[in-house]
Design goal:
The chain is mainly alpha-helical and 91 residues long. The chain folds into 2 domains: 1-36, no CATH class; 40-91, no CATH class. It is built from 4 helices and 2 strands; from the N terminus they run ααααββ.
């Protein structure tokens, strides 16, 4: 859900063009496509708060903590995430 929140904010600021961000059913649409949309959780928030402050963006910190908690990869081109110990896909 943190990724969707970040997408929604960037779209509203004009920094990202992603028309589905305005769809109130975006989480359901993503689930129908096979994505796993997770709610924001306190354990992941706590993990994100314990990272060193080399990446100040709270959304990216949360996403990195979620990826580590789930032992998954993140689809990102942001090299700052490497410092959080995540494995990135999408370069």
């Amino acid at each position: 859900m943190a990724s969707l929140w970040k997408i929604s904010i960037k779209t509203s600021l004009g920094k990202l063009k992603f028309p589905p961000a305005d769809d109130p059913d975006l989480p359901a649409l993503l689930c129908a496509e096979g994505f796993d949309v997770q709610p924001i959780s306190w354990p992941v928030i706590r993990r994100a708060s314990q990272f060193p402050w080399h990446h100040p963006d709270p959304f990216d910190r949360y996403i990195a903590a979620e990826v580590l908690t789930r032992d998954a990869q993140v689809l990102s081109t942001d090299p700052k995430l490497d410092r959080c110990g995540v494995e990135r896909a999408g370069e």
